[in-house]
Amino acid sequence: MAPDTVSLRYFLVLAQELNFTRAAARIGIAQPALSARIRRLEKELGNALLVRDTRSVVLTAAGTALAESAPPALAALDRAWDTARRAGAGELGTLRIGYSLSAGAETAPALVDKVIRDTPGLEVGAVPMATPEISPAVAEGRIDAGITRGEQPGRGVRRYLLRRERTGVQLAQHHPLAGHAEIEIADAAAYPLRLPDRAANPVIHDQLAALFRETRPHPRFHTPAVSFDMSQRDLRDGVTLAPAGEAAVTAAPAGLTWRPLRGAPGLTFHLVLPREQSPPHRRIRAVATAVARELHWLPD
């Protein structure tokens, strides 16, 4: 039978002090309570651990053996206990994250860095994925979590609002509208507008296109041949605009800038998790809440 570990820890203090009064004071209990603990431990062991009289306390052979062998055993037990606690808190294991390419500019790196810093025992891997594939991959268990722009459809998942950002346009710094602090939607619609390939993210494509639905004349939309060109070459002509969220500020190449569209509804990022969630899932959700608060991604 495993010993009472509290009594065992008390015995180790007594084995160091060899004095009931000093040991009880060090532990912070009454001396009779310490004596009762030691008697219980001896009864469990079936052997005397010490010889005591009015003047001294001497360890028996069994007491000496226990005093030498118990500390590493208790340390191993403490490690096992801590490992179980950390696993239950989602602080151990592997976390696979898929994220939309547009989330890679700022949102996904910030969240992943926070998870790694706060949970060093969790092995984290994050890879870009086509946005429509993320929710099914989470539902099927091929990845543990997803970060998507927009509230993507999908069954078997839960979505948590991670970030809300202003909607605006990317444009060349020498564009005629670049000098405005905010741009009217109708003014932006007077120029060619580049929208991402709808297949890459139908939700965001339709949301951005809808901004200009009521403008007259109808805007001229086009989709670039390279759906995710980091250099943004087509905007350098000083004419074309690209509707985009405020995160585009972080990733804007030299020569380009971003301006908000007056009155435009915001764009969103969502954390996608399975409906049935394990400790690592709950852990990333807690970290996501913390990083959203720290970086002011959501209104108070």
Automatic annotation (TrEMBL):
The keyword RNA-binding does not apply. Pfam families: HTH_1, LysR_substrate. Keywords: DNA-binding, Transcription, Transcription regulation. The keyword Cell membrane does not apply. InterPro entries: LysR_HTH_N (IPR000847), LysR_subst-bd (IPR005119), WH-like_DNA-bd_sf (IPR036388), WH_DNA-bd_sf (IPR036390). Signal peptide: none annotated. Residues 3-60 form the HTH lysR-type domain. Belongs to the LysR transcriptional regulatory family. This is LysR family transcriptional regulator.
